[in-house]
Design brief:
The protein is an alpha+beta fold. It contains 2 helices and 6 strands. The model has no long low-confidence stretch (mean pLDDT about 90).
Length: about 130
């Protein structure tokens, strides 16, 4: 029987990525946020993958129960999640991150977009892949 694909929000990364640039202070942090996946796509979705190299993503839910487990709303169109995208601006050496408000119904289009970024990232390691 084929292995079932995990949902993006089921991924458990072994280590966290800091939402803060050590070299930027206070309000100078290089971050952006969007109220929806569509809003992100309209602004940054077609950004050049070399100038804006995506190296990591994390999907989390906004609430937790008393045991620390995520509280997931049963309506797949309810925006109860945050997708964090972590970037390196290779040309300027800039580390930045983006927070996007998402819902479970967004997952197929997010997965498709992330897959394109993964292909680009792997192409940078061409002799080893």
């Amino acid at each position: 029987m084929p292995k079932k694909k995990k949902k993006l929000w089921e991924a458990e990364h072994a280590y966290y990525c800091n939402e803060g640039n050590y070299f930027a202070s206070g309000n100078d942090q290089p971050t952006s946020s969007y109220d929806s996946w569509q809003g992100f796509l309209g602004s940054e979705g077609d950004s050049d993958p070399d100038y804006n190299l995506l190296f990591r993503w994390d999907w989390s839910f906004d609430g937790e129960d008393d045991d620390g487990n995520p509280v997931v709303h049963p309506d797949p169109y309810y925006r109860d999640g945050t997708l964090k995208l972590f970037w390196i601006g290779q040309r300027k050496g800039l580390y930045r991150w983006t927070c996007v408000s998402v819902c479970k119904a967004d997952e197929p289009v997010i997965r498709e977009w992330l897959t394109g970024r993964l292909k680009h990232l792997l192409s940078l390691w061409e002799p080893l892949v």
